[in-house]
Amino acid sequence: MFQLMRNIHLALGLLFVVMVAVFAVSSLAITYRTWLPQTPVDGEKTVQIETALAETPRALARTLMQKEDLKGDLRNIEESPESVKFRIFRPGTQVDVEWERSSGQTTLKTRRWGALQMMVQLHTNHGFWHDFMPANLWAGFSLLASVGLLLMGASGIYLWFAHHSERLIGGVLLAVGLIYGLTTLILTRLT
After folding, report:
1. Angle made by CA atoms 94, 19, 16, in degrees to the nearest 5
2. Is residue 117 part of a domain?
3. pTM value?
4. How confident is the model over 82-115, as pLDDT tens digits?
5. 167-176: long-range contacts at Cβ-Cβ below 8 A with a sequence spacing of 24 or more?
6. The domain containing residue 57 runs over which residues?
7. Are the beta carbons of 106 and 49 closer than 8 angstroms?
8. How many other CB atoms are there within 10 angstroms of residue 94's CB atom?
9. Cα distance between residue 80 and residue 101, in whole Å
10. Does residue 127 belong to any structural domain of this protein?
11. CA 40 to CA 110: how far, in whole Å?
């Protein structure tokens, strides 16, 4: 049983090391945001979209995604008698779209971030049902990594407990880690 648990522990660690590294680096970027300034690259473009292709915001977004090779989730839809506004977002890139109903003129304001900010956006991305398939894959892999890390922790506790000579120091470290984690969680919820 010890050999099986050791192999499971090792395999889970190797499988999810990249995911843990992304979350560790993005956590540091979130915590020390003022120390690591990220300057996005902005661009603007104007295109014409016929009224027939923009019956709904989703139809307009689909047309723009095909014509301008845009990818991402449709967000922040605002409709008025004069215009339609929305955002097409994927980690690392957002495009703010404004379509004027009278002229068909469509303004695309693109903002691109660097790799560090993209990792932060991956870190804070939530939900499973996105229009952008890579976001769904990331969400599924995040779920698998969470379950895998819990199993890795459980197998690590089993491996520690199997070493009789290391139970005392392991128990102390486990208790200190648990107290630290719970204290941090409570303090973050209070502030």
Report:
1. 155
2. no
3. 0.69
4. 888 999 988 888 999 998 888 888 899 999 988 8
5. none
6. 41-112
7. yes
8. 20
9. 9
10. no
11. 10
